[in-house]
Amino acid sequence: MRKEALGEVLADELKVIREYVSEIPHMSKKLDKVSNDVDELKTDMKAVKAVVKTHSKEIAALNAAVFK
Prior knowledge:
The chain has one helix at residues 2-66. By secondary structure, the protein is mainly α.
């Protein structure tokens, strides 16, 4: 009886493991998408930083001219 109960527990655990393993390809696709999104965000942030830097310089120059 004890061996049967242990066998059932192991079977249940193996079932859970199989279900998890079957999800790995799906999770991998999602991870690839997230990675691509992060790469795109990095590119966008570089552009934003460049614009902010340019605008900051322009504002500083205008402030210097106005409050001279």
